[in-house]
Amino acid sequence: MLHRLTFDEKVIGLNSRFERQSAEAILRHTLLSGQFGNVGVVSSFGAESVVLLDLVAAIDPATPILFLDT
C-alpha cells in the first residue's frame, strides 16, 4: 500500500528542497513544473508587486495575473 504524504510532510519536503534556492528558482519551478497544477498570480498592482510581476513575466508571460482591488 502506498503511503500518502500528509500536508505537513509535503511542506517539510518543499522546505528541504527549496531552502537554499533563490526566489526566481522557486517561482520558475512553481510556474513551469506542473507540480502544482495551473498557477496564477494575484496582485494589487501596487509598488510592492513590481518585482514579482517582473519575475513572472520573465519566466512565463502566459501566467494569469488576477487583479485584487485593495
User: Which range best describes the helical content: under 10%, 10-25%, 25-40%, 40-55%, 55-70% or over 70%?
Assistant: 40-55%
Discrete helix count: 3
Largest sheet: 2 strands, parallel
Cα end-to-end separation: 47 Å
User: What is the succession of H and E elements?
Assistant: HHEHE
Question: What fraction of the residues are assigned to beta strands by DSSP?
Answer: 5-15%
What integer value in Å does the Rg equal? 15 Å
The shape is: elongated
Number of strands: 2
Q: Give the rounded overall mean pLDDT.
A: 93
Spatial order of strands in the largest sheet: 1-2
The helix-and-strand class reads mainly alpha
Uncertain runs: none
Structure description:
It is built from 3 helices and 2 strands; from the N terminus they run H-H-E-H-E. By secondary structure, the protein is mainly α. It has a domain of 32 residues. A two-stranded parallel ribbon has the order 1-2. Helix 3 links the parallel strand 1 and strand 2. The mean pLDDT is 93.
